[in-house]
Structures are given as structure tokens and as C-alpha cells.
Amino acid sequence: MFKGLGNLASVMRQAQQMGGKMQEVNEELRSKRVTGSAGGGMIEVEANGHGEVLRVKIDPSLQDIEMIESLVPAAVNQAAAKAKELHVELMQSVTGDLNLPGLDEAMAKFTGGGS
């Protein structure tokens, strides 16, 4: 009857360790930078690891408003995708040694690898 308590205690310890590591990951994601670009670098978007846009740079020679309007979303989406990849990498470094049921499936759904 009490055999499962040892496993529960182990899971609780792992969860506490993961909580501390998650704070570290969040701080690291906030400080990391990714860049998305479009139009051969005429539009650049810098974002942090959380996907928050920090800076947009538009080449001053680009005068076509319609082109700018189409290139900005492409650059933002590229930066967001890179931020998501960075987030997954850091999460996997934290969760790699934890044995939590369903974690792999949850990560696959987060990255778009699951249905």
C-alpha cells in the first residue's frame, strides 16, 4: 500500500528541481536574442527567446509600402519560429534527465510534432 509513496516523493523532488530550473530557463530566454529577416535582409526583426519583438529594422532604401507590409510579417514569423526553437532546446536541456510520464508527448505537441 505504501510502495507508491516512494515514487510519489521522487516525482515531487523532480518537480521542485524542475521549478527552479524553469526560472533559470525563463531568465535565459529573456536575455537570448534571435533575428528573423526578409527581403534579403531589407527587413530585420530582433526578438528575445520568449518571442517578444524587441526591434524592427527597415532598410531606408525600401520605399514600396506594399512590399514592407508583406516583408514585416515574414520577418516576424521567422523570428518567432527561431524563438520557439530556442525555447524547446532550453526546455529539453532542463527536462532531459527527468522521468515524467507524458513529457515527450507534450513537448512534441508544443513544437508541432504531435497531433
H/E topology pattern = HEEEHH
Unreliable residue runs: none
Number of domains: 1
Q: Report strand order across the widest sheet.
A: 1-2-3
What Rg, in angstroms, do the CA atoms define?
Answer: 20 Å
CATH-defined superfamily: Nucleoid-associated protein YbaB-like domain
Strand content: 15-25%
Just give the CATH class: Alpha Beta
Question: So what's the oligomer here?
Answer: single chain
Q: In which range does the helix fraction lie?
A: 55-70%
Number of helices: 3
CATH topology term:
Ybab, Chain: A
* Distance between the first and last residues' Cα: 37 Å
Class inferred from helices and paired strands: alpha+beta
Spatial shape: elongated
Q: Give the strand tally.
A: 3
The CATH architecture can be given as: 2-Layer Sandwich
Largest sheet: 3 strands, antiparallel
List the helices and strands and how they pair.
Blueprint: H1 3-31, E1 33-38, E2 43-48, E3 53-58, H2 65-95, H3 103-111
Antiparallel strand pairs: 1-2, 2-3
Helix pairs in contact: 1-2, 2-3
